Amino acid sequence: MRHSEFIDLTLERDVIERAAATARDTAIRAGQLIHSRLTQPLGIRVKDAGGDLVSDLDLGAEEIILRDLRRAFPHHRVIAEESGELRGEPEWCWFVDPLDGTNNLAVGLPVFSIGIALCHFGTPVLGVVHEPMTGNTWSAIRGRGAAGPHGALRRQVTPRPPGDPVLAWLQGYPVGRTDTTAIALRLALETHSRRLIQLWSPLLCWIMLSRGLIHGFVGYRAGLIDFPAGSVIARECGIEITDFDRTPLPESIDDPSSEVSFLAGGPVAVDELAQLVKSVVRKPEPPASL
Fold this sequence. Notes:
Layout: H1 3-36, E1 44-46, E2 53-55, H2 56-72, E3 76-80, E4 84-86, E5 89-100, H3 102-106, E6 113-120, E7 123-131, E8 136-141, E9 146-148, E10 151-152, E11 166-171, H4 180-191, E12 195-197, H5 202-211, E13 216-223, H6 227-236, E14 240-242, E15 259-265, H7 267-280
Parallel strand pairs: 3-5, 11-12, 11-13
Antiparallel strand pairs: 1-2, 3-4, 5-6, 6-7, 7-8, 8-9, 9-10, 13-15, 14-15
Helix pairs in contact: 1-2, 4-7, 5-6
């Protein structure tokens, strides 16, 4: 290794170390704001045609996070759920979901989280998930393992009878109620599982999977804003993430505005899910030749 390469790697590690500390601290501060205002009237409104919601708590938490990130890393690019893109140098890009689970909050269900991730040339290198209701924080640095509230996070898989898993399901907001693929997938997953969790807070599903509390996670046309934070933690806990054809999903995010369909779990669970999905999602037949 040349001396210049060593310096570059050292600088990258320094950035990631400082970024990890900043992300954890700001997620906790944003979570404290959310928790402190839960008993106050919530200003909630529909923000798009897909029915997604935004609240004053989303905006307040995002303001804290963006201020902290821009103060610590003024030249980094940021993509935030509510504010959109804040331009910066392309090498480093933050993904911020200030309140993952606003739809739950709107109906009084205390299931939501905060997600922050940092990507280096498109590859997630850092993920932080904070749960305001419990004060728990989970994080991971790529290649260095994951951590939870009580130290190193190691997946302890919940035993299950063969063919009787607990699964999580996620579909993107643009997916309509009449989407035949989504309907068929949900039905197949419900039929072949002990329980199908539809949490409306995918970051917490990633944490449940990483801890071994559930056995698999299926996403259909999911948005990417909270994918990096959850996936980097899951991968550091040994979770496989593939597309519906069982091909490993690339870690790099080329287009932050795109959608992703995925299978996630241990190798056995992903094999089972791939077979199940294959029986439901059939590729269109090529047109008959004349």
